[in-house]
Specification:
The chain has 323 residues and is α/β, with parallel strands linked by helices. The chain has 15 helices and 15 strands. The longest helix is centred in the middle third of the chain and has 21 residues.
């Protein structure tokens, strides 16, 4: 039986109704599950500390609402059932949402009134979305059981899946949708060891702007894991100003782009008008060598979840496939 992972925020030991002990981990504000040797079906209650430091106890929830598309998918991957989702769960087209699932609003504007009217026994929210955080007092006062998660890397996803499969008692799905994905990622990373580190520029574009992103971003973390050198790590000023002068100086081997917002076309048009129109753009090594790449939004902007291994494989093929 798997040994459930857990973490502590600010070095404080969480006290659970379940038997458990603590382990050292350097991450802050991360969801944690108490160590136990029983499945959820055997213990009933599952207690953990969420990403905002709240102690949460869940007991076999029957009416669950997920206020983010990727979290809705993770709950389904953990073997759970959904009663409500935000509209992005449909818009992202990331998973088959069963018929009869209610909308509780949008990602950035979930309706507290709708959520409360459904009388859920478990609501999953994002610790990184201020509108979700602002719902806590209202939902808590109404007796609604909430849990906040923060997912930016595969490790974060694995932690969340660990907690959710503990709740559902589906250790098999933790293995299938978590550990097997982790093994695939490790194999891809291992295959890149000893290879020359390519220099990359990673840009996130939207209809009115574009920003370089460093290795703390989701895709940036994957690139770093694969041995790439991100020029935004070398020159942090690029995070604020996508300076062509600095890009020319660094001359990246690859330029990767992800788009955000409802219109990928508008984001790409912004880059063409405001960035690529500079005559120096076509002199960059990445552009001249055909290594200016727009990445699949589903795998590199939205959380890939069980497809995270596929995301690593695609990046590794771009970075090293020609060798």
């Amino acid at each position: 039986m798997k040994k459930y992972l857990y973490m502590l925020a600010a070095g404080v030991l969480a006290v659970s109704m379940l038997s458990g002990c603590s382990a050292d981990n350097s991450k802050n504000n991360e969801q944690v599950v108490e160590e136990t040797t029983k499945t959820a079906s055997e213990t009933g209650d599952v207690t953990f500390t969420d990403a905002l430091g709240h102690s949460v106890t869940v007991n076999n929830p029957k009416t669950t609402i997920a206020c983010m598309g990727s979290f809705a998918e993770t709950w389904l991957l953990a073997g759970g059932e959904l009663a409500g989702v935000t509209d992005d769960a449909y818009d992202e087209n990331r998973t088959d949402i069963p018929d009869g699932i209610s909308s509780v609003g949008t990602l950035n504007s979930p309706s507290a009134e709708t959520i409360i009217s459904m009388n859920p026994d478990f609501v999953i929210l994002s610790a990184n979305t201020k509108e979700h955080v602002e719902l806590y007092d209202t939902l808590n006062s109404a007796g609604i059981n909430t849990a906040y998660f923060s997912v930016n890397t595969f490790e974060d996803y694995l932690d969340m899946l660990n907690i959710l499969t503990t709740i559902t008692g589906r250790e098999d799905l933790y293995e299938k949708n978590g550990i097997e994905v982790q093994n695939k990622i490790n194999e891809v990373i291992e295959s890149t060891k000893g290879k020359e580190s390519p220099k990359v520029l990673y840009i996130r574009a939207f209809s009115t702007g574009a920003k370089a992103k460093d290795s703390t971003s989701m895709t940036g973390k994957m690139l770093a894991d694969l041995g790439a050198t991100n020029i935004a790590d070398l020159q942090p000023s690029l995070l604020e100003d996508l300076s062509m002068e600095e890009i020319i100086k660094q001359d990246p081997d690859f330029i990767f782009v992800t788009t955000m917002g409802s219109s990928e076309e508008a984001a790409i048009e912004y880059l063409k008008t405001e960035v690529e129109s500079n005559p120096a753009w076509n002199e960059l090594s990445a552009v001249k060598n055909g290594r200016y790449i727009v990445l699949d939004k589903a795998l590199f902007h939205y959380k890939p979840n069980a497809r995270w291994g596929e995301s690593y494989e695609i990046l590794a093929d771009y970075l090293y496939g020609e060798e």
